[in-house]
Write a structure and sequence with these properties.
The protein has 301 residues and is an alpha+beta fold. It has ten helices and four strands.
């Protein structure tokens, strides 16, 4: 009788090292993101407490309202910044996702604490023009760093994204209207020249943010070579369009995904693409205007 062949013993390689490597990589990414968000929040606090507030110059958004309330009540600015931004933490969680919400919570917490600590420091300058320019630049760099790393330091844009669902106005237009009324209010509370300096500081900060995050408008267009459209719809709440493409070098068919997002959603989109395929081709560019179509945000799962 022929001898039975002994079953070959297959060597199973342990998966632990790969998992540990992935876990270590994730921890490094989290630490890096948290460090940059902390740095950005501190820079914003410096711009507010050492340039703008001592000269009665405002920022826009929730921070601007907080400055006015702090001036009228005598309470610490950091208290109002944290309190007024709490609702937007939950809105950010619902509209954009958990990572964005936690990043925003970290940024707002650091910002609030930093304004407490810097409040007793002497102002850098008494010159209103210098305070406006350098305060706006410092603030803009801080906010830009935080947005670029997936967070936010002011709930205005989150609120604008929410209102954008049921209004004919764009996110940028809603933010502009909101800040217009804040600066008008600043004219009554302080002096009208302070309101004009505040508008100038906000404009400088806004343009500085654009430079830091490499964008001109709050809307971004994204072209992605991989089939991840469903993930974008489910996890980001944005509609996508599939286009048929062909690789010029290989001649192979490719499916191209096109979608339009806001600048607060850019970091989330990159995270989604990286989770599914870290090697996927992703191109993000600025667009001047968005009209029609399905740009309105839907609920995310």
């Amino acid at each position: 009788m022929p001898k039975k062949k002994k079953p070959s013993k297959r060597r199973i390689l342990p998966l632990t090292p790969q998992r540990n490597q992935h876990k270590t990589s994730s921890i490094k990414v989290i630490i890096k993101r948290a460090s940059f968000i902390t740095l950005g929040a501190i820079l914003m606090a410096i711009g507010i407490e050492l340039f703008l507030v001592p000269n009665q110059i405002l920022d826009g958004g929730i921070v601007g309202i907080s400055i006015i309330l702090s001036y009228l009540s005598g309470w610490k600015l950091g208290f109002f910044i944290f309190l007024l931004n709490i609702p937007f933490f939950f809105l950010g969680y619902k509209q954009i996702g958990k990572t964005f919400a936690l990043s925003t919570l970290l940024g707002i917490t650091v910002l609030s604490i930093a304004t407490f600590l810097l409040h007793s420091f002497p102002r850098f300058t008494d010159d209103l023009l210098l305070a406006t320019v350098f305060g706006g630049i410092t603030l803009g760099i801080g906010v830009g760093i935080v947005i670029r790393n997936g967070g936010s330091l002011d709930g205005t844009e989150i609120l604008a994204i929410l209102f954008n669902k049921n209004s004919p106005f764009s996110v940028g237009e809603i933010i502009m209207f909101f800040n217009f009324f804040i600066f008008i209010l600043a004219g009554f509370v302080f002096e009208w020249d302070r309101a004009m300096y505040s508008a100038m500081a906000y404009f400088i900060a806004f343009k500085t943010i654009d430079i830091v995050i490499q964008g001109i408008d709050e809307s971004k267009s994204a072209w992605i070579y991989e089939e991840i459209g469903k993930a974008i719809i489910d996890r980001l709440g944005r509609g996508v369009t599939y286009l048929n493409g062909e690789g010029a070098y290989t001649g192979s068919d490719k499916k191209v995904i096109f979608c339009v997002i806001t600048r607060l959603e850019e970091a989330k989109l990159k995270s989604i693409v990286e989770d599914i395929d870290a090697t996927a081709f992703l191109a993000v560019g600025s667009i001047a205007e968005v009209r029609g179509g399905r740009f309105k945000k839907t609920a995310i799962h």
